[in-house]
Design brief:
The protein has 264 residues and is α/β, with parallel strands linked by helices. 43% of the residues lie in helices and 14% in strands. It is globular.
Length: 264
């Protein structure tokens, strides 16, 4: 962890780091470059570094049966990845007490998380694994967590749901701000919701299609309808390469950065 922090701290032009948790069936070589032919890094401020969290390595053809089989395989991988992401968070919490450079990188509000599609389920598992002890340490939290077109339970952030109790309530506590984007025009999540096999195995996981419902009880959660925010898109699931999306995220990061004191 300290070597990682030293590397980030040594990048003189970098003010913020985004951990990018990608979605289903993406090859490692495509994670940062396969978004409409435009690298995801290019849509962010040059001072913001996008760091991929590689967890999926499935190549699936487009037939329905193979896609569902691949979905099941990746879903299992996603759960393991969520456990690993939690271990990363816990280690950062612990090392902030011991190392000045780790504290500088992780406790200064410059570390963020962007989860897309099934990557949001990875993030859900991270929240599920987060304990009261993790929350009480208080040495590290994310500046901004972005939940984009989530392949996750629609009641993740509903006040009285079990999913909020187990995960959502903790996700909003380990971030200064949570930005959730959804779209009723997300054809990918709509097709998944209509798959009887996937729904029977995993239940409803179309938060990015339906929206989160009433979340007024979460004061640091901002909800955006992507169809309204970015009108006229051909694809309301994979718009990571959209410059307006990058501007939106960077704008939230800059707002949050003003709230943190400088960490020596």
């Amino acid at each position: 962890m300290e070597e990682f922090a030293k590397t980030v701290d040594g990048l003189q032009d970098i003010t913020d780091v985004i951990m990018f948790v990608h979605g289903y069936t993406v090859q490692p070589s495509e994670i940062l470059t396969n978004f409409g032919g435009k690298p995801i890094q290019n849509v962010f401020d040059p001072h913001v570094l996008v760091m991929p969290v590689v967890w999926s390595s499935v190549t699936i053809s487009n037939t329905e049966v193979e896609s569902i089989v691949g979905y099941v395989v990746d879903r299992a991988r996603a759960e393991k990845a969520g456990e690993c992401l939690h271990k990363f968070f816990r280690q950062a919490q612990t090392e902030c007490k011991k190392s000045g450079v780790v504290r500088k990188v992780f406790a200064g509000g410059k570390f963020h998380l962007l989860a897309h599609s099934m990557g949001c389920f990875v993030t859900y598992i991270m929240g599920q694994k987060t304990t009261r002890g993790d929350l009480e340490q208080g040495n590290f939290d994310f500046g901004v967590i972005v939940i984009k077109q989530a392949n996750a339970a629609p009641d993740w952030f509903n006040e009285n749901s079990e999913n909020f109790k187990q995960s959502g309530s903790k996700i909003v506590k380990i971030a200064n701000r949570v930005l959730l984007l959804w779209s009723p025009d997300d054809a990918t999540l709509k097709a998944l919701a209509e798959s009887k096999l996937a729904t029977k195995i995993y239940g409803s996981n179309d938060l990015g299609l339906t929206g989160p419902g009433n979340v007024n009880h979460v004061k640091n959660l901002k909800v955006i309808n992507a169809s309204t925010q970015f009108p006229g898109l051909d694809n309301y699931h994979a718009y990571l390469g959209l410059q307006e999306f990058g501007n939106l995220v960077v704008g939230e990061i800059k707002k949050v950065s003003l709230l943190y004191p400088k960490v020596a």
